[in-house]
Every structure is written in structure tokens, then in C-alpha cells.
Specification:
The structure holds two protein chains of two kinds.
Chain A (H helix, E strand, L loop, with lengths): L15 H4 L16 E7 L5 E7 L1 H4 L4 E6 L33 E2 L5 E7 L2 H10 L1 E6 L6 H5 L14 E9 L2 H7 L2 E12 L8 E7 L4 E6 L4 H12 L6 E4 L15 H13 L3 E4 L2 H7 L3 E12 L5 E13 L12 H4 L11 E9 L13 H19 L3 H8 L8 E2 L5 E2 L4 H12 L1 H13 L3 E10 L7 H6 L8 E7 L5 E5 L8 H13 L6 E4 L17 H28 L6 E4 L2 E4 L2 E7 H10 L12 E6 L8 E10 L6 E11 L6 H20 L31 E4 L17 H17 L14 H12 L1
Parallel strand pairs in A: 1-12, 10-11, 14-15, 20-21, 27-28
Antiparallel strand pairs in A: 1-5, 2-4, 2-6, 3-5, 7-15, 8-13, 9-10, 9-12, 13-14, 16-17, 18-26, 19-20, 19-25, 22-23, 23-24, 26-27
Chain B lengths: L1 E6 L2 E6 L6 H8 L18 E4 L2 E4 L12 E3 L12 H8 L9 H14 L5 H7 L11 H15 L1
Parallel strand pairs in B: 1-5
Antiparallel strand pairs in B: 1-2, 3-4, 3-5
Classes of the chains: A alpha+beta, B alpha+beta.
Chain lengths: 783, 154
């Protein structure tokens, strides 16, 4: 009897029973007797010199156990590390302390820490700390900060420039001088707040008797956090255990190391008591990383028949007050490498200036660099189509890398693994019934109604790899992933993965992979993640890498297990290993299928070890560290259809079609869910969400009342479809699927709105396209 | 102040500070950590519980205001090991990813279906406005509620 293959099946998630019954194991649920509560005193100023910190009133309050200033920890807690040191960019990394000592550089910069019997007391004591500041002029805009005469955040960083990164592929000047068509624009990819529904937090428990520090924290990458915590506290890695089992969303914001978990750890060691720190949403908004904030000056050269011949970009990235863990790599490599998009653009010149400002530090937020590149290209190609009076679908088709050119090496040095871009465009055109839609648009325009159709034909890079490339880019780590497959004597299997899902469902998809490999029921397989004491060193979950990289590690480790089990089975069956076949969980002699041993029998024999083949050791457990040969490059076509009310600027969504190609799909239900959520975030960037600072650096969008995370009523239904072009990069043929929606949707929505406004002569409005901005643009045209 | 509250069918009596929020009472005093905290301005709805049968945000209710009330938290929704149809719908339709908003989302949906047994998609989206989800784009949450509505009408 054949066992049903689970690859490709929408298996219901194994994570869900605990999560729908309130039995998840989130960080804030950890209860250790004697735990003290940690709260942080944060700067109310964007830029100021700290003159004096008076903690005496706070210390005197009943229930307060200790109060720390930056000076108190200067010898025991090293500065927050930056782990992406981009080369050849004159990168300077200024000192970033968990508690500021002499100067604060953004609203929310912590200056003191209170430890008390409970959170209510701790918060009261925070209020009782008196800090005298000498307020300094602040600068929040990166172009202003880089200009002469701007307030200086650091003496050693003239014009607040932390780096100048460049990638020049081909001779752009020559292309520009000969160009038949030239387009130049300033584009803004504005600042966003990741807003994982679970804010960040940590429970740190140092045991003075053993010298061991256990930290439960909201982490996308527990081993990275262990390594960095070891670096800042001086406690050896072997004495630190980081646990992050259930994590309530991350979107990049739970990759970096922050002050909170550093302070909880250092103070737990100092006091010998468990310390719990959990941020409020307001703290999450001022002090957990923000994303994007990239101002781009773009020149695009093209022929009169619509072929793009070159792109030049000068960009200013707003890094915030300090360099967060991966911040230099996001607006540079992850942006610049993708500036050819899905097109045969032969020449790319990109210069990125990383600028420090008096704002919350920025780092990777879902998409991380690729949305900045994709919005730029998709907006510019629409402008080019308008200039040449071409159909936006046809100009894309004209510039696509055709399917016979893969693997395709881009001028920026990437090798696109596989693709059929036109197929996704054709499918999407079919789904929206494009010709009919254009006809309707004409009809409605005649009635004074504004229907718009917007495209995004994107390609993105994910499952970032290999480690050698990471090294060349200055990333201070590898980009591999680990897995251990442990078969127990009963034949049940525990899989330990270095990926750390926080919503992506790998407890289900990884089990599907192993069930297929071993021909055993899903119920016999347990996926374990998020505990550094249990799993081999792992890189974690981000950049749409868990299946492509972590899943491959799981498959490779499982195959090693099978190889060893085959030797044991052959020995038990008294034949040579070459004569043993394995199917549906049974080892049998080729040509004599009745002479067989079940997987469970072989597992038992491996642990009894009464009779093992020569040179084969007892037990059945294998580990694999997988370093992929390449990234994966998912692609697709999103089409958004909107109607804009010219009197109010309000946008109504009529249709949203996404045709993505993420290669082979293990669990379609989960991939669809990732696409829905991704589109929601990218669409929200286009029309709802933006971070606002006032000119003094006060965050105006500091709560969920002010920052427009979309509600259910604010989003349309998404029609999701797929084409399948497998990648040769891994044995599954699967590409990443976590960020495609976010990367694709922002330009699709923006292009739809601008297309709607075409009869009014509007060809661009800066993001986000709020009703007010649209209304103002219309009013300006009408005057 | 002394309060007596019945939570998931069990009656508790505690002395609480007047300023203690109901969500902290549930989480810290009763160890019912299924009720989550996602914001500090009553926007996100992660802390939603049923108070005398109606959905309330437990971060916006003082524990003392719950004196004498019947509270249902996510831990008390399944009966005798049988999932509530809304819980079942969330599992069947992939209505959750990270699971952090899920308890509040489920309890708001229970409240909705008590009031409107056969809601339209628009009504569902409107009713869930007080509960934020960052993972799903709400599409499968809508399907989960539709699944539950159908099941509860059967």
C-alpha cells in the first residue's frame, strides 16, 4: 500500500491546537518564582546631553530593588554590536550602549533601568527618576542630516554619514549620453513600523550557583541572540541558553539584539534573581526597529521603443540614531543587487549614503531592501510606459528576461535560478480579464469615474546564501542552516531545526518533508525549535529562508539517517546494502519484498546494537549543516484594480490578483496565508501606514491609535494563484514565500491609483497615497 | 479591594489593588496567560474576553469592575475537550499564523455569532475592527468565522 505523499498537501497546522486554546508558550507567559520586573527610563528628547541622572527618589520607593544608570553598567555590559559591516564603504560604527551615558540620540533612548517587585511599582519608579538634559538641535530627515550645517549626532561622523556604499555595473554615463529617452525622479520609500502583535520582551534567569544564564526572549534567531549576549556580557556561550518557542510575529523586528534583553541579562547576573522585561506598545513603537526610509534619486535610460538601457540611483538611507544589528546591509546589498528586477537592464549604478538621524534605529522589516528596489523599478517603468504611451503590461513584457535565459546572471552579479516571468503576467491578465477591464476604464472615465489598473512584475532574492557570499558582503555570520534528525528506539522521530518559525508553520511543513522521506506517519514526527540547549547552532528564520535553507538541512539530515538505517537493515536481512530498497517505511530485499524490516524495527535494532554491521556505530541520529549553492528568486505578477473618488481622494479596492511563482509548494494553505499577509503589509504601505516625526524628533505615530495598521474592514479580498517553476537550488525545488506579497504589492497598489488619476494629468504622488495626498494632488491640478 | 469573579466556571475571591487591570488579574493572579497583551491603548484586541457573555477588552476593564461577573477566557471556550466551532474554524481555515491575536480574535467572533448568526463578509470585517492581526491579512479569519457560522447554524 502506497503511503500518501504529503509534499503539496494542505495539511492542517500542528501548531494550532495550542494557539487556539490559549496554551501557547510566549515569552510573557514564563513564570519563575522570585522574578523582578525591569522597566526603562527613556529619553523624551530626540537629541540631548545628559547633565545629571538623579535616581534617589526611585531608589527610596517601597518595592524598588535596584536602579541602574549607564555609568553603573559601563564595565559589565559591552555596547550593542553591529553585525553587518559592509566593506569598501568607509563604514563607521558609533558606540551604541544599552543605557546612554552622556548623550541621547532618539526619543526612547534608554537612560536608566529600574528593577522592582512588580511592574506597577517599576513603572512608578521610572517616573520618579529625574534626568536633567541639555536639549540639542535634532534632525530627523536623512537628506537634511547629510547637508552641511545640520546637527551632528557624533563627533567622528561628519555630516552624519555612516557609510557610502556603491555598486557600479557597466558604464552608465555612456548609456545616459546616448539615451533616446531619459527619466529622472525623486522617489520616497517611507518609514514603517513592523508591529508584530506580540511586543518584545525577555525573562533572564542567572543562576549564581552554576553560572548559567537562561534567557527566554522574543527571538527570530535564538542562537544569534545567544552569541551576541555572550559577546556583550562576557558569559561564555556554553553557559547561556536562549529559548524562544512561541513568538508572536517578527517581520524582522525580532532579529536584532536590543537594550532590553541585554539589561535583563546583566542585571539578573548582578542581582542573582530572575528579571522580566516586557515592552509596552508605545515602547515597541519608539525603541524597536523601524523599517525602510529610503530616499532615491533615480535616472532611467531607455530606447524609444521601450527597452530600458540603464538605471542609476543615488539613495539616502535613514539609519536612525544608532546602527542596529543588520542595518547597514539592508538599504545597500539587499536593495542594490536587485535593481535589474525582472528585466534585462544591462547597466546599474547605485550609490547609497547611510545617514544617522535623531530617530529610532532602522533595520530589516519584511522584504528588507527588496521592496525599495521593486517599488523604484515598478514605478519608473510605469512612468516610462506613460512617456512612450505604451501599455504597462506590454512594456514589461518587452523588458522581461525570457525564460530560455535561466540561470541568468545579472550585471549586479546575482545568478537568478529559474523563472518564467511572462507566464505569471499572462495568467494575471487572464484572471482580471484585462482587455475588458481597460474597456470598462474608458467607459467609466467618460462618466467622470476614475478606475485604475496597477501592475507589479517583481522578482526578489531570498533564502539568502551562500555563506561565502555573506562573507563577501560583510555579514558577520554564515547563511547556512542546521538540522538534527534523532530517531528514537521506538521509531518516533525528533527533528531539531535551527530555523525558528514565529507564524510560518514549519512544525507542520518540516514534518511533511520528513514523513515523505521516511514513509512514517506525521504523528510520529516532532519538530523542535527555539531552544539553544536542544538544537545545533542555527541561523534562524528571516529573509524567506526557512524552507529553502532550513528545510533542505532537514531533508539532508533525514537522508543521512536513511543511509545508516539501510546499512543496519541490510545487516539484519543478511544482504548487501545495495540489495536493500526502502519504500513506504519498509526496508526490503530487492526482488524479494517479503524479506523486510520496518523502519521501527531498524530503529530498535540501532539502539539495541546487539548485532551491528562492521564499522557502524549504535544509535540513529544525524546532523546536517546545509550551505546552499545559491539564493532562490521567486517572482510573479500582481495586478491591483482601484477606483478613486476625486472629491475625497478615497481609494476603493475593486480587485487584487496575485500570481506568484515560488517553485514547488510543500503546503499550499500555508503559502497562501503567507501571501495574504504579505500583500496586506505592502498594500498598507501604499495607502495607510507611515511614520511621522515632528521637527523636534517626537514620534507622532507612537500608538496603534495613530499608526494605521490595517483593520479587517480596510483590506480587500485577495485572489491568489500560482505558476510553478522549480528551483534547481534545493532538492524540493522550492523558493521562499514569506516576503513576495509585501515586495510585490506596494507598487501594484500605487500604480493602480496613479493610473486612475491619469485623466487628471497626475503621473506620480509620493507614498503613502492617503486620501489627503490624493485630494491635494487633484486640487493642485484643478487650480 | 476584595472581588469575587467567576472565570471559566470557577469562582475566585482575591484582594486586588483598585488600579489593577482585569487582564493583569487574569494573567498574574489566575495564571490564565491565554489572554494576551498587544498594546496599551485598547486598539489591538488581543486581550478580549467575554464578560457576562459580551466581548470586552480586558485591558480597558479594572479587575474591580469585574466583581460579580462571569468571565470566559480562551482557556474556557472548549468544553469537555470539544473545540468551540469558532476555534475549529480557525484551525480548519488557517485563520492564524503566529497565534498572538488569536484568542482575542476568536472571542470577538464568538460574540459576533451570538448577535448575528449569519453574517455577511462585510459584517464580519466590520465586527472584527477592534481586533488587529498582522499576519493573515484577515482573509482566512473571515473564512474561519464563516465556517463557524455555518457549523453553528447546522
Amino acid at each position: 500500500m502506497a503511503v500518501t505523499k504529503l509534499f503539496g498537501a494542505s495539511v492542517k497546522r500542528r501548531e494550532d491546537p495550542r494557539l487556539i486554546t490559549g496554551r501557547g508558550n510566549f515569552t510573557d507567559h514564563i513564570r519563575i518564582p522570585g522574578t523582578l520586573s525591569l522597566a526603562l527610563k527613556r529619553s523624551p528628547h530626540a537629541h540631548a546631553r545628559i547633565v545629571r541622572v538623579d535616581t534617589s527618589k526611585a531608589r527610596a520607593m517601597p518595592g524598588v530593588v535596584a536602579v541602574y544608570t549607564g555609568q553603573d553598567l559601563v564595565d559589565t555590559l559591552a555596547p550593542v554590536p553591529c553585525a553587518w559591516l559592509i566593506p569598501n564603504s568607509e563604514l563607521k560604527v558609533p558606540t551604541y550602549r544599552a543605557l546612554a551615558i552622556d548623550r541621547v540620540r532618539y526619543v526612547g533612548d534608554p537612560v536608566a533601568a529600574v528593577v522592582a517587585e512588580n511592574r506597577y511599582v517599576a513603572e512608578d519608579a521610572v517616573e520618579a527618576i529625574e534626568v536633567e538634559y541639555e536639549v540639542l538641535p535634532a534632525v530627523t530627515d536623512q537628506e537634511r542630516a547629510a547637508a552641511d550645517g545640520a546637527p551632528q549626532l557624533y563627533d567622528e561622523l561628519p555630516n552624519n554619514i555612516a557609510f557610502h556604499w556603491k555598486l557600479h555595473a557597466g558604464d552608465f554615463d555612456a548609456v545616459w549620453n546616448q539615451a533616446e529617452v531619459k527619466l529622472s525622479r525623486r522617489l520616497v520609500n517611507h518609514r514603517l513600523i513592523p508591529t508584530a502583535m506580540e511586543p518584545r520582551g525577555a525573562v533572564a534567569h542567572y543562576n549564581p550557583g552554576t553560572g548559567e544564564l537562561t534567557v527566554w526572549c522574543t527571538s527570530q534567531n535564538p542562537h544569534i541572540h545567544r552569541l551576541l549576549l555572550s559577546a556583550v556580557t562576557g558569559i561564555p556561550e556554553t553557559r547561556i541558553r536562549v529559548i524562544a518557542t512561541d513568538v508572536g510575529g517578527g517581520f524582522g523586528s525580532k532579529i536584532p539584539l536590543y537594550a532590553g534583553e541585554m539589561l535583563a541579562s546583566a542585571i539578573s547576573r548582578d542581582l542573582g534573581r530572575p528579571i522580566k522585561w516586557f515592552e509596552s506598545r508605545r515602547e515597541n513603537y519608539v525603541a524597536t526597529i523601524h523599517g525602510r526610509d529610503h530616499i532615491q534619486y533615480v535616472d532611467m535610460a531607455a530606447t524609444r521603443d521601450g527597452k530600458i538601457t540603464g538605471v542609476r540611483v543615488k539613495a539616502y538611507a535613514n539609519l536612525g540614531g544608532y546602527l542596529s544589528t543588520a542595518s547597514p546591509g539592508v538599504p545597500t546589498w539587499l536593495f542594490g543587487l536587485m535593481l535589474c528586477g525582472a528585466y534585462t537592464i544591462p547597466v546599474v549604478h547605485v550609490d547609497v549614503y547611510g545617514v544617522l538621524t535623531n530617530t529610532t534605529p532602522t533595520d530589516a522589516y519584511r522584504g528588507a531592501g527588496r521592496p525599495e528596489a521593486t517599488y523604484l523599478l515598478e514605478r519608473m517603468i510605469d512612468l516610462l510606459a506613460r512617456e512612450l504611451d505604451m501599455d504597462p503590461a506590454e512594456i514589461r513584457r518587452k523588458n522581461f528576461i525570457s525564460k530560455d535565459r535561466f540561470p541568468y546572471t545579472t550585471p549586479t552579479g546575482l545568478q537568478y535560478d529559474s523563472g518564467d516571468y511572462e507566464a505569471t503576467l499572462n495568467r494575471a491578465l487572464e484572471l482580471v480579464n484585462y482587455q475588458e477591464l481597460r474597456r470598462q476604464q474608458e467607459e467609466l472615465r467618460a462618466q467622470g469615474r476614475y478606475l485604475g489598473i496597477g501592475f507589479s512584475t517583481y522578482v526578489e532574492v531570498c533564502g539568502l546564501a551562500p555563506s561565502a557570499a555573506a562573507g563577501a558582503m560583510g555579514f558577520q555570520g554564515g547563511l547556512w542552516e542546521s538540522a538534527t534528525v534523532r530517531v528514537h528506539p521506538s521509531g518516533k522521530v525528533s527533528v531539531f531545526t535551527g530555523s525558528n518559525p514565529h507564524g510560518q508553520g514549519e512544525e507542520t511543513t518540516f514534518a511533511q518533508l520528513v514523513a515523505d522521506e521516511l514513509g512514517i506517519p506525521l504523528e510520529d514526527i516532532e519538530i523542535v525549535h527555539g531552544d539553544t540547549a536542544m538544537i545545533p547552532f542555527g541561523m534562524g528564520t528571516y529573509g524567506s529562508r526557512s524552507l529553502a535553507v532550513g528545510g533542505t538541512a532537514v531533508i539532508m539530515a533525514t537522508r543521512k539517517v536513511k543511509e545508516k538505517a539501510t546499512k543496519i537493515a541490510a545487516h539484519l536481512l543478511e544482504v548487501a546494502p545495495e540489495d536493500v530498497a526502502f519504500e513506504n517505511g519498509r526496508f526490503f530485499v530487492k526482488g524479494a519484498p517479503d524479506r523486510a524490516k520496518s523502519f521501527q524495527e531498524v530503529a530498535g535494532a540501532a539502539y539495541l546494537a546487539w548485532s551491528m554491521p562492521e564499522g557502524v556505530t549504535p544509535g540513529l541520529e544525524e546532523t546536517h549543516f546545509h550551505d546552499p549553492v545559491n539564493n532562490t528568486f521567486p517572482f510573479g505578477c500582481h495586478i491591483c484594480v482601484v477606483e478613486v473618488d476625486p472629491e475625497t481622494g478615497k481609494v476603493s479596492f475593486r480587485q487584487y490578483v496575485a500570481v506568484d511563482d515560488v517553485g514547488n509548494v510543500v503546503n499550499p494553505m500555508i503559502v497562501d496565508g503567507q501571501v495574504h499577509g504579505g500583500i496586506a503589509q505592502g498594500l498598507a504601505q501604499a495607502v495607510y501606514e507611515y511614520v511621522a516625526y515632528d521637527q523636534n524628533g517626537q514620534l507622532l505615530t507612537a500608538t496603534l491609535m495613530d499608526y494605521a495598521v490595517p483593520k479587517a474592514s480596510m483590506l480587500p479580498r485577495f485572489d491568489v494563484d500560482r505558476t510553478v517553476t522549480p528551483t534547481p537550488v534545493n532538492p524540493m525545488g522550492a523558493k521562499g514565500a514569506g516576503e513576495t506579497g509585501t515586495i510585490a504589492s506596494t507598487p501594484a497598489v500605487a500604480n493602480a491609483i496613479i493610473d486612475a488619476l491619469r485623466p487628471l494629468g497626475i503621473d506620480h504622488i509620493d507614498l503613502p497615497l492617503t486620501p489627503e495626498r490624493i485630494w491635494r494632488a487633484i486640487q493642485e491640478r484643478r487650480q | 479591594m476584595q472581588i469575587t469573579v467567576t472565570v471559566n466556571g470557577v469562582t475566585h475571591t482575591h484582594d486586588v489593588e483598585p488600579r489593577m487591570l482585569l487582564v493583569h488579574y487574569l494573567r498574574e493572579s489566575l495564571n490564565l496567560t491565554g489572554t494576551h497583551i498587544g498594546c496599551d491603548t485598547s486598539q489591538c484586541g488581543a486581550c478580549t474576553v467575554l464578560m457576562n457573555g459580551k466581548a470586552v477588552k480586558s485591558c480597558t476593564v479594572f479587575a474591580v469592575q469585574a466583581d460579580g461577573a462571569q468571565i470566559t477566557t480562551i482557556e474556557g471556550l472548549a468544553r469537555n475537550g470539544q473545540l468551540h466551532p469558532v476555534q475549529e474554524g480557525f484551525w480548519e481555515m488557517h485563520g492564524l499564523q503566529c497565534g498572538y491575536c488569536t484568542p482575542g480574535m476568536i472571542l470577538t467572533a464568538v460574540d459576533l455569532l451570538q448577535r448575528i448568526p449569519n453574517p455577511s463578509e462585510e459584517q464580519i470585517r466590520h465586527y472584527l475592527e477592534g481586533n488587529l492581526c498582522r499576519c493573515t491579512g484577515y482573509q482566512n479569519i473571515v473564512r474561519a468565522v464563516q465556517y463557524a457560522a455555518e457549523k453553528m447554524r447546522a
